[in-house]
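Changelog note: in this version the structure field was regenerated for every chain. One regenerated record is shown below for reference.
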Amino acid sequence: MLNSYSHSSISSYRNCPQRFKFEKIEKPQVSKLITPQTLNGKFIHSVLEKLYKHGSDGVLISIEDAQAMFQSDWDKFNIKTITLVGDYLTIDDYIRLGREMLGRFYQKYQPFNQGTLLGTELKLNFRLENGAFKITTIIDRLTKREDGTIEICDYKTSKNLPKPTDAAFINQMGLYQLAVMDNYPQFENIELVQYFLRLDEVVRTKLNPEQLDLIKMEMRNQIVETIQSEKMDNFPARESPLCSYCNYQEICPAKKHRLKLASDEKSDKSKEEKAFELATEYIKQNQELGILKTKQESLKKDLVQLSKENDWSSIKGEDGNIKISVENKEKFITKTQDAGAFAELTFLARELNLTDYFKLDSQALMKEIYQKNLLDEEKIKKLNEFVVSEEKARVTVRMDKRIDDDSDR
């Protein structure tokens, strides 16, 4: 269990549990991937912080000095360590875009003294679930406008514009509001604002108490899910376009086999080739309509065994890729496994007044009550006696994309 949680850490878990495990739990020493998008955001945030701090004291930094600060941050950085990912822009293009973003924002909001500045890069903590979970937030800017409205501001340099109803916007900004309300209970009229500098757009919204309660509930459920994943050591890799920006590709179970095959140096060539051959054979068999189930299950067993021995969740074959998910799942003991223990569990469910699960729907009891930790510690302890661990392996074929010779280009 982590000491504290944030919007970014929970987003990391949603996007890829395996990456969350690397970042927050194991923390292996790997080379950090540095992109111009990340640096642009970091340097622009730094300049805006200075503009508003000075502006609140009646001092206006000139546009020339603001641009010079931005350029100075770039000049201090070794561009040889920067990786261009998934874009047609060069590093010089990103620097130009950053200067343009700053220029537009400067002309629109100078002299940067709108209202009373309450803080920049403001770190606020609060607790959920009766103090059980610590939430950490860092707010780009907190301002009290002349009409008394508290404005929670966040700067974005991406080219994706959300709607005020989008979950990502509401979850992030809602957590910021909860942090402000917990630390400054005198603030009542609060507006959430994200400034999109690249698009020259502003997204604003206000949340009602019901929405804030929902955010707290969802955050609590997400935290409990990460704790359950840690308990069962179940952090599947979830491949997506975000993989290109991940620091852990070389050690990721979904990438290791593919990268090893592509590498000129193989520490154990026979092992890599054996996995490749197994995956290739499995994929070919999967394509045939008359495939014999017993043969495929045998191949699956070998693939699963290799994936467990080598920490692979993806094995590359000749015509595609094998996704392998091996996880231990908790479930309550069934009548067929142990009739006597099942009878005791049924009696305990009645004793705990779990009327919705009286029949007994052990799967629903596990998913809706036990894993969400919705009972007190004493009741959970009693249920623990009837929990067993069961390993399940799932093997999925994903074919490589091909372009036909006569297709349009």
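Spot check on this record: Confidence is low (pLDDT under 50) at residues 403-409. The first strand starts at residue 116 and ends at 128.
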